[in-house]
Amino acid sequence: MGPNHRxxxxxxxxxxxxxxxxxxxxxxxxxxxxxxxxxxxGSRVRIALNGMRAVFHRPHPQKETDKGAVKSMRxxxxxxxxxx
Length: 84
What we know:
Elements: H1 3-12, E1 21-22, H2 23-32, E2 36-39, E3 44-49, E4 52-57, E5 64-65, H3 67-79
Antiparallel strand pairs: 1-5, 2-3, 3-4
């Protein structure tokens, strides 16, 4: 995991919850962690990591992930055994 991925994971677990994390940075982090991403219908993205599965929606038209999705991603990563 490179320095950009470390910054992204720290941003996800930061309090208060941030709303300016780029979705592509989150996808890059997940890929670096070994997650399998597959495109679902519309803006849905299916993610499988360490035996855990989740479905997220890519933000649009903006590029930043909202606070609710960041909280959900934080919970998903914790359940998959990933912490900063």
